[in-house]
Amino acid sequence: GAVVSQHPSWVICKSGTSVKIECRSLDFQATTMFWYRQFPKQSLMLMATSNEGSKATYEQGVEKDKFLINHASLTLSTLTVTSAHPEDSSFYICSATSGLAGGGGPGELFFGEGSRLTVL
Amino acid sequence: SQQGEEDPQALSIQEGENATMNCSYKTSINNLQWYRQNSGRGLVHLILIRSNEREKHSGRLRVTLDTSKKSSSLLITASRAADTASYFCATGINYQLIWGAGTKLIIKP
Which residue numbers of B have CB closer than 8 Å to A's CBs? Predict the structure, then answer.
């Protein structure tokens, strides 16, 4: 299947600093990328949907100024956690899709390996 | 909003046995997808079943979909220790996927 590379795999930072996480689709053009947050032993929480060249669509309750998403090309999206605080510590996962599935509906998602953020 | 809900929340079986996980949802869908997540890793797509399909197979996986009951099941036959993971269903409509809470599957050797 298609490969999505997410970097870094884990990061530890001090409170108040900003952290950037990259998500790259290596062998296909991702028209849409999704950013999720996952708490321990819980399901995925969609944070935002980004389409190449346009502003990201944030889910309700997600601060767009806190979590900056840029989707500058069809193969790269970045999530920047600005002025990170300990409560931002979490597992962040990106996924990408090349479009709709045959017959309609969202197509298969290809996931990165996730980035574990720890804010001290 | 619609939500996929898996049951059981956790399942522990012996290697070689079959594992069945169920997913229920609330509204009409275009497709339903199952994913697997190993601990601390990203998710891997297992299978997509369209709303007009009733059953689909992939290797040791068998997925059924009953749109009248708004439910799906994932069967893993002849389970292996390597199947230990969390399994999530996601219901798809238009561009959106709604995720269930997942079933944690433990295969005991």
Answer: 29-31, 33, 35, 40-45, 48, 50-52, 88, 92-97, 99-102, 104
> Would you call A111 and B50 a contact, using CB atoms and an 8 Å cutoff?
no
Chain B CB within 8 Å of residue A92 CB: no
What is the DSSP track for A51-99?
ETTSPPEEPTT--TTTEEEEEEETTEEEEEE-S--GGG-EEEEEEEE-S
pLDDT tens-place string over residues B58-83 = 999 999 999 999 999 999 999 999 99
Cα–Cα–Cα angle for B104, A58, A61, nearest 5°?
75
Which site among A108, A117, A118 would you substitute to test the B interface, given the most B Cβ atoms closer than 10 Å to its Cβ?
Answer: A108
pLDDT tens series, chain A, 120 aa: 679 999 999 999 999 999 999 999 998 888 889 999 999 888 899 999 998 888 899 999 999 999 999 988 889 999 999 999 999 999 999 999 877 777 778 888 999 999 999 999
- The whole-angstrom distance between B16's CA and the closest CA on chain A is 26
Nearest CA in chain A to B104: A41
